[in-house]
Amino acid sequence: MSSSGSHRSDAEWITSSYSQGNGGQCVEFSRAFLGSGAVPVRDSKSPARRLLFPADSWRSFVRTIKAEGLE
């Protein structure tokens, strides 16, 4: 995991399905960099700051969350 300064203004950000749309605690991710093997993740309240995860690690994280019923 690393902090990313990369910026794509055309990146589509996907909001967590558990975000309530009221400006609260929203985690967003983008598929825009999957070709490079990376998944950027950000807090919707601070969109300029992003964490960049290896795609395999992100998939493993999501799979574990679903398997453990932590969704």
Summarize the structure.
The chain is of the alpha+beta class and 71 residues long. It contains one helix and five strands; from the N terminus they run βββββα.
* Major sheet details: 5 strands, antiparallel
Low-confidence stretches are 1-6
Supply the number of helical segments.
1
Portion of residues in beta strands equals 35-45%
The average pLDDT is: 79
Structural category is alpha+beta
Rg from C-alpha positions?
A: 12 Å
Total domains, how many? 1
Shape from CA axes? Answer: flat
Question: Percent of residues in helical segments?
Answer: 10-25%
Name the assembly state.
single chain
H-E order: EEEEEH
Main sheet strand line-up = 1-5-4-3-2
List the keywords:
1 helix; 5 strands; 71 residues; disordered N terminus; alpha+beta
Molecular structure report:
This protein has one helix at residues 55-67, and strands at residues 2-4, 13-15, 27-30, 38-43, 46-54. It is α+β, with helices and mostly antiparallel strands and 71 residues long. Strands 1-5-4-3-2 form a 5-stranded antiparallel β-sheet.
